[in-house]
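dumping this here so i dont lose it again. seq + smiles for pyridoxal-5'-phosphate
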Amino acid sequence: MNWPTHGSNPHYLYKAAGIRQPAQIYDFSANINPLGPPKSLREDWDDFFQEIIYYPDPKATSLRTRLAEQEGLHKDQVIIGNGGAEIISLIGKWLTGKRVMIIEPSFSEYEQTCRVNECSISYFFIDHNGKIDVPHLSEALTDQDALFLCNPNNPTGIYFEKQVIEQILTICSEKKCYLIVDEAFYDFVDAYQSLVPLLNQFPNLILIRSMTKMYAIPGVRLGYMMADAEIVQSLQNQQSHWSVNGIALKAGERCLDEKHYVEQTRLFVRKERERLFRNFRKHRFDFLPSAVNFYLLRDPSMEDQSTFFQFLLKEGIVPRHTYNFPGIEGKWLRFAIRSEKENDILLEVMEKWRAIHQSSL
Ligand SMILES: Cc1ncc(COP(=O)(O)O)c(C=O)c1O
């Protein structure tokens, strides 16, 4: 089956599954803030419109400076990208032909870009609780130039605490290996501890961020990377001129003012996550203890979730399949946390499934 490689655009998923798309569907496959974009983006949209008659600043100086100030860095340690996806792709080019390890299951673009750039790729798998066995990783990490780690991890939603990352970073440092931590969902974590202060101590640390998820702006395309100024410069040399458009640059600055909205989002997501998990427990579904706005779920009575997946699609519920996540292929389904109303609809459909398929567990 030719499954879509990412969530969102559900019509591709229905086509691949050979299921007619119901008139009403609820998309749980893209992990975007359920509260939608901050109101201020709509209010200021006319100002952003002015930008379309100019070429954008190719150095994105204003947004870079704002981000650097916010994070306590020099602006030369920050690069803005056309989404986190462009940053990942630039890192892939920078790593051309190198030996790269990926902690799996994880976001598929790391492998994709490393493959295109002829890296030799190896994998390290998290354990069944979603944790990293650090001593085991240390043994496996021989002769690698770079290690990709997604934190919080997509698709598991598990957050690796700073202490764990510090241990891995120290190991990488001793082994002369770059540690690339993708923090696309960092701002959904309640007890997030910043890794940014480690950047000045560890020049082998690279942090990727996305503004897509928290600010619900996947169509705008905005992300950034923080790293040693030399690495930033190398990526900048590869980036196409005016890669990040002027609207995205302005909208990004506006988003940085939205501290209250970020807090409100975290609160809402936590409340909904706890409510959903209470219900899943009651109806005997398995799930991993996510710290963010999405989670992995399965019916424990079946190893492969395809029957459950098809049932949901027919009911208009669109989860993210996991066929292209190494290590869990098809054994789990991933769901975004959506609005209260949408989550209620999901729970109703789950109960309907459970009524038909009484778990033997
Ligand atoms: C872990 C992770 N990193 C990066 C990205 C890329 O995000 P964007 O290019 O929209 O900023 C995604 C998108 O799904 C993601 O899940």
